[in-house]
Design a protein that fits this description.
Blueprint: H1 4-15, H2 19-26, H3 30-39, H4 49-58, H5 65-68
Protein name: XRE family transcriptional regulator
Organism: Streptomyces longisporoflavus
Amino acid sequence: MDDLSQLLQQTMRRRHLTPQAIADKTGIRTPRIRAFAQDGAEGPIRPTDAELTELAGALALPAIKDTARPAAAAT
């Protein structure tokens, strides 16, 4: 899973969670959760590392920092 949007949408659907339920678990505001689920990590509203950690913990996901951030280009 290489996109935060897909990861959130699939997890929310599988666990029958709403953005509000995730916001209640994490403390992240509901509009930000919706933006992450719709646009992913590369949208106009980008998640912070702390938010990614909160999401991973609340949803019992492996560290999603690696899946949300694009890989650095090798030079």
